[in-house]
Design goal:
alpha/beta, 4 strands, 2 domains
Length: 205
């Protein structure tokens, strides 16, 4: 079974899609499913709201991705030269993408945030992490995943596709909407995250 979120979701999708004989099930907390124009009925109001929120996020919340996918070395030099720049680059995303009321320390704790930042700082990998976007964006493609798939969509995940969009893109056997957690679900709500994996696994027996 492959499991992923964020870039892990991208990698896990590829494993399940292209190596289904070895990867026979997939669990994600970030579902990549969009309307494809084949619907026989118009989008519902809820679905229109999903797209509106996603569009707003693309306009106001993806500046980091734009520079990392087009000019990664520009920000990269700052990320390996200044611990303040690196800490701010990371902390802002923890604040904006987690279920924390804009206070990441209340969820993760200061030490854990510093541990995460230190992983990039002491290894000098801020630039190479940013360059992943430039190296990968052009090669990303979408295709239906045929292996048994479970989706646990935490409430503060950045993108919240409706179940019927997800069913079009995945062989969906498990669908769940936990009450707490965000983009960093496994870190924010580890006990709930493990429960979600076991519940999905029980669907495969």
């Amino acid at each position: 079974m492959a499991q992923g979120a964020d870039w892990g979701a991208v990698v896990s999708n590829i494993l399940a899609r292209d190596f289904a004989s070895a990867c026979t099930s997939l669990h994600l907390t970030m579902a990549m499913a969009f309307p494809d124009g084949s619907d026989s009925r118009a989008l519902s109001m809820d679905e229109q709201n999903v797209l509106a929120r996603y569009t707003q996020h693309r306009l106001m919340g993806t500046g980091y991705a734009s520079i990392q996918s087009t000019r990664p070395q520009t920000i990269g030099y700052g990320l390996v030269d200044s611990p303040t720049a690196l800490a701010a680059w990371i902390f802002e995303k923890l604040a904006a993408w987690s279920d924390c009321g804009d206070d990441p320390e209340s969820i993760f704790g200061r030490d854990a945030i510093l541990d995460l930042t230190s992983l990039y700082w002491f290894t000098g990998t801020g630039a190479s992490a940013a360059r992943l976007y430039w190296e990968s964006y052009a090669s990303l493609k979408s295709a239906r995943v045929s292996v048994s798939t479970g989706i646990s969509l935490f409430p503060y995940e950045l993108y919240q596709p409706p179940q019927r969009w997800v069913e079009r893109c995945y062989n969906l056997v498990y669908w769940s909407r936990p009450q707490q957690g965000g983009h960093f679900a496994a870190w924010e709500q580890p006990e709930q995250f493990v429960k979600e994996l076991w519940r999905f696994r029980s669907c495969l027996a």
